[in-house]
Write a structure and sequence with these properties.
This protein is about 10% helix and about 30% strand. The protein has six helices and 28 strands. About 40% of the residues are buried.
C-alpha cells in the first residue's frame, strides 16, 4: 500500500471537514469498542510483527479512525508499518478512500477515511486487523519486555489523536497496550518435532526425518537432507526426532510427524518451546508383543527351467489385534549367493501402501511401509508380496528375520532400524517374527546348496555302487513316493533336462515334508547343506 509522507492528522481532518458535518474531536469514549496492540516475542536480533486489532461491539459502523503508536527506541527499532486485512473488504474490495501511515521517531501514526462519500464504513465486528508494525529487537537482553502504547502525541506537523468516528463524532476506544518480549536463548533441551532447529515444526522437518531414516529413498517420497536431528542450541540430539517419545527412531516417528504436520496428530511435549525429554520410558517397545506378528508365507516359484534364474514370490502378512495399523518395518536376511534382490530395491516389495525398501548389503532387506494419506490405516488387504530372484539349480534355507540392524548407507550418522508394527495411536510394537521349522529341500540328495545332475549321480551311486548313504532320505525321494529307487534319479534328470515336473514340496526352499507319511527321515542338516542352520 502506498505510503503518504504527509501529516495523517492534517489530511484526516481535511477530508472529514469536506465530507462530513462539523466534527467534534476527542469526545470522551462511551461506546463498547477496543483498540489492542497484540503482544509479540522473539530473540535478540529477530524481527517481530505487532498487530493492531480492533473490536467494535456497538451497533454502529466506523467511518474513519486515527491513532499513534509509541515505542521505546532504546529497546526496539521500528522497521515498517502497513495496513492490515480489515481494509481489504472496504468499498467493495477497493480499500479505503484514504489511508496514511507515517513512521516517526519513537513511533508511527495511522489515519483512515473509509469513504469520501460516506458510501461505506467498517461494520461492527471483532478481531479486525487494522495495521501491522514490524520491529527489530536490538536493545534488550533475553527476558526483558518493552511496551507498545497508543498515544495522541505523535505526528508530522501536529499530533494525531486516538479517534474512531461514529457518525460525525470521535470516540475514544478502550486502549490495550502491547508488549515485545526478548526471549532467553535456550541452553538445553529440545523442541520435539523441530528436527532442524529452525523455530518451527513443519514440512521441512518431515523431509529431514525421512532422510535421516532413508537417505537413499526414491525422490517421490520427499526425503531432503538437512543434517542430523538437533537440540535447541544446534547440537545433534535424536530426542527431537523421537516423535512418539519411546527412545527409538522408527517408521512410527515419521508417520506421526507427517500426520501432525496436517493437523491430525498431537506431538508429545516438549513442543513450541525448548524443554527436556520428560523420561526414558520405552513404552513397551523394548520387548516382543506377541499380539503383533509379521509372517512370510509359502513361496511361489515362477518358471520351470532350473538352469535359468527364476523369480520367487513370498506372500507377506502383517497381523495385529485391529485393522488399524499405520505402518511397519520388517528386516529380512537371506543367502545372497542363492537369492538376489532386483536392481532397484524398491521393486523387491509391492503392496501395503507406500514406503521405502533399504538394502544395507546384498543379503539384507529393510522394508518400511505406511499409507499415502497421513494418519490413514495402512491395511485394507493385509498382504504384500516380496519378490526375489533364485539362482540356477539353487535350493535355499528360509529367509530369516532380524530384530534390528545398524547401517550407514550414506546417512550423516549411523542409523539403527528396528522391526516394528505401528498401531493407530502411533505406538511401536516389536512384533513376533514368525518362521517355520525347515529340514530339507527335495531332490537335494547329496545335501549341498543346489539340485543338479550331481544329485542324480549321488543317488545312482548309493543305489548301485555302494556309494555314500544320503543324509536325508526325504531329500533323495525326488518323486515323493516314499521310497528311494531308480525312479528318483530319473525324476531329477527329467526335471533338469526334459522339462519334467517340478519336485514336490519342499522345494526349492527348505521345509518340512508335507506328506504322505512314510518311514523316510532326515538327520540334522550337514554344514554346507542349504538347510543347515
Amino acid at each position: 500500500m502506498r505510503r503518504h509522507r504527509v501529516s495523517a492528522r492534517a489530511l484526516f481532518i481535511l477530508v472529514l471537514a469536506t465530507s462530513l458535518a462539523p466534527l467534534s474531536i476527542a469526545t470522551a469514549g462511551g461506546l463498547d469498542h477496543e483498540l489492542t496492540a497484540e503482544d509479540a516475542a522473539g530473540f535478540v536480533g529477530d524481527f517481530v510483527d505487532v498487530v493492531v486489532s480492533y473490536d467494535n461491539s456497538t451497533a454502529e459502523g466506523v467511518r474513519g479512525w486515527s491513532y499513534g503508536v509509541a515505542h521505546d527506541s532504546s529497546d526496539v527499532t521500528l522497521i515498517d508499518a502497513v495496513g492490515g486485512s480489515a481494509l481489504d473488504s472496504l468499498n467493495g474490495g477497493a480499500g479505503p478512500d484514504f489511508k496514511a501511515i507515517d513512521l516517526l521517531s519513537g513511533g508511527w501514526t495511522s489515519g483512515v477515511v473509509v469513504s469520501f462519500t460516506l458510501a461505506d464504513e467498517l461494520d461492527p465486528g471483532l478481531d479486525y486487523e487494522l495495521d501491522i508494525a514490524t520491529y527489530e529487537i536490538d536493545g534488550m537482553i533475553g527476558g526483558e519486555t518493552t511496551s507498545i502504547d497508543f498515544v495522541s502525541t505523535l505526528g508530522v506537523a501536529v499530533p494525531v489523536d486516538v479517534c474512531f468516528v461514529f457518525d460525525t463524532l470521535c470516540e475514544l476506544p478502550d486502549l490495550v497496550s502491547g508488549t515485545i518480549t526478548a526471549l532467553v536463548i535456550p541452553t538445553t533441551g529440545i523442541v520435539r518435532g523441530d528436527i532442524n532447529n529452525d523455530g518451527s515444526t513443519d514440512a521441512d522437518d518431515v523431509s529431514a526425518l525421512c532422510n535421516i531414516q532413508w537417505p537413499d529413498a526414491p525422490p517421490e517420497i520427499g526425503c531432503v537432507d538437512q543434517g542430523p536431528p538437533l537440540d535447541c542450541v544446534g547440537d545433534p540430539d535424536t530426542d527431537s526426532a523421537d516423535i512418539n517419545d519411546n527412545e527409538f527412531l522408527t517408521v512410527a516417528d515419521y508417520i506421526m510427524l507427517r500426520t501432525a504436520n496436517v493437523g491430525s496428530a498431537t506431538i508429545p511435549a516438549p513442543t513450541g518451546v525448548c524443554g527436556d525429554d520428560p523420561d526414558n520410558d520405552m513404552r513397551g517397545f523394548g520387548t516382543i508383543d506377541t499380539d503383533y506378528t509379521i509372517t512370510i508365507g509359502d513361496l511361489i516359484l515362477i518358471g520351470t527351467d532350473p538352469s535359468l534364474e527364476r523369480t520367487v514370490f513370498f506372500p507377506f502378512v502383517v497381523d495385529s489385534p485391529t485393522d488399524s495399523i499405520l505402518g511397519f518395518t520388517a528386516i529380512l536376511e537371506f543367502d545372497s549367493s542363492v537369492l538376489s534382490i532386483p536392481p532397484d530395491p524398491q521393486d523387491a516389495f509391492v503392496g501395503l501402501g507406500e514406503g521405502v525398501v533399504v538394502s544395507p548389503d546384498p543379503s539384507t532387506l529393510v522394508i518400511s511401509r505406511w499409507n499415502a494419506t497421513p494418519g490413514d490405516p495402512l491395511i485394507g488387504s493385509d498382504v504384500g508380496v516380496l519378490q526375489l530372484t533364485l539362482a540356477p539349480f539353487a535350493v535355499f534355507a528360509p529367509l530369516e528375520w532380524i530384530a534390528e540392524i545398524t547401517v550407514h548407507s550414506g546417512a550423516p550418522e549411523e542409523f539403527t532400524y528396528r522391526a516394528t508394527v505401528v498401531d493407530d495411536a502411533f505406538d511401536d510394537h516389536h512384533p513376533e517374527l514368525l518362521v517355520g521349522e525347515f529340514e530339507f529341500a527335495r531332490g537335494n540328495s547329496n545335501s549341498d546348496s543346489a539340485v543338479n545332475i550331481a544329485d542324480s549321480i549321488f543317488t545312482l551311486d548309493y543305489l548301485f555302487s555302494d556309494g555314500p548313504v544320503p543324509n536325508c532320505f526325504d531329500a533323495a525321494d525326488a518323486n515323493n513316493d516314499s521310497g528311494i529307487d531308480i525312479a528318483d534319479p530319473i525324476y531329477t534328470l527329467a526335471y533338469l533336462f526334459s522339462d519334467g515336473p517340478i519336485f514336490p514340496a519342499p522345494f526349492p526352499q527348505c521345509g518340512l515334508d508335507s506328506g504322505p507319511i512314510d518311514l523316510l527321515g532326515c538327520n540334522e542338516a550337514l554344514p554346507g547343506d542349504a538347510c543347515f542352520e
